UniProtKB/TrEMBL annotation:
Residues 24-278 form the EAL domain. Signal peptide: none annotated. It comes from Rhodoferax antarcticus ANT.BR. This is EAL, GGDEF, GAF, PAS domain-containing sensory box protein.
Length: 281
């Protein structure tokens, strides 16, 4: 895009654009070494059942600590990794690490729960995804029912026919599926009923203002009812206050996830959290 400067001549990059693309390039190069240098790790955020208050799952969220750039947020580096194709190797590492961790937890006697893993559009479109998922589970020795893959509406709606076929195959193998950030994309209701999805994740943007925005309350209630009529469960994302929790519980939301319970935690802290959860029923 051409930008017109104040002197009425043209330049292709403003200094701001230049530093933005320079950072992208730097990060893209750094991503290449990130995996081999062990700069990535996963944090796990508890997912709490609103029926009994127990932890019923965790969501794996990637963290990148670069020696020079420091902590880089996934919202910044995932899109770069998607553009460069590096997301395939990173996504494979995430899947393997998460699945191996859950197997280790189960072996150590942790109460059975579900491991949720975010998928990228690029992974979802890749023809080897099903094989990769099944191979990863098999190598780790984890039964498929402990794994949930998070898709977005855009991923499912991009090519609904292909998406439905893949979802059916994953479902047949026992892998659970959920739709992340539900309500922010656009999915057609006539397709939604064909998606083999067990859970809708209500986006945090609707949860945030439950207290003082009646439209958001109406949307959250509608999503919970829609899910329930389609035989799907709901989990609310970004729950931070007791008021939000009370409303969600009243509306029949199944699960919640957010800072009110816990931020995403490194392995040892998640284990400590799990112990306190079982100590206080
Ligand atoms: P997401 O999957 O929707 O994850 C939820 C985000 O909300 C996470 O941000 C989480 O740390 C944050 N969060 C959780 N509870 C609260 C809360 O109570 N309040 C607020 N304000 N935020 C909360 P995070 O970890 O920065 O991840 C951002 C996004 O990056 C994720 O959104 C997901 O789309 C993507 N992402 C993270 N890890 C992976 C991964 O391993 N693979 C892929 N493909 N994408 C990932
Ligand atoms: Mg997610
Ligand atoms: Mg989300
Ligand atoms: Mg997301």
């Amino acid at each position: 895009r051409i930008k017109r400067s104040s002197h009425n001549n043209f330049c292709f990059f403003t200094p701001e654009m230049q530093s933005h693309s320079a950072r992208r390039l730097q990060l893209s190069n750094a991503l290449y070494f990130g995996l081999t240098r062990g700069e990535f790790l996963l944090h796990y955020q508890p997912q709490i059942s609103l029926q009994d208050g127990h932890m019923v799952g965790v969501e794996a969220l990637i963290r990148w600590q670069h020696p020079e750039f420091g902590a880089v947020a996934p919202s910044e580096f995932i899109p770069i990794a998607e553009d460069s194709g590096q997301i395939l190797a990173i996504g494979e590492w995430v899947l393997r690490t998460a699945v191996t961790q859950m197997k280790a937890w189960l072996d150590a006697g942790m109460k059975p729960m579900v491991m949720s893993v975010n998928l990228s559009t690029v992974q979802f479109r890749h023809p080897d995804l099903l094989a990769l998922v099944m191979q990863t589970l098999q190598m780790a020795g984890l039964p498929a029912q402990y794994l949930e893959l998070e898709l977005t509406e855009a991923m499912a709606m991009d090519n609904p026919t292909a998406a439905i076929a893949l979802m059916n195959q994953l479902h047949e193998q026992g892998v659970r599926l959920s739709i992340d950030d539900f309500g922010t994309g656009y999915s057609s209701l006539s397709y939604l009923k064909k998606f083999k999805v067990s859970k809708l994740k209500i986006d945090q943007s609707f949860v945030r203002d439950i207290g003082d925005d009646k439209d958001d309350r109406a949307i959250v209630t509608a999503v919970i009812n829609l899910a329930s009529s389609l035989g799907m469960q709901t989990i609310a994302e970004g729950v931070e206050t007791p008021g939000q929790l009370a409303f969600l519980r009243l509306q029949g939301c199944d699960e919640a996830q957010g800072y009110y319970f816990s931020k995403p935690l490194p392995v040892d802290q998640l284990e400590a959290f799990a112990k306190t959860m079982t100590a206080v029923p």
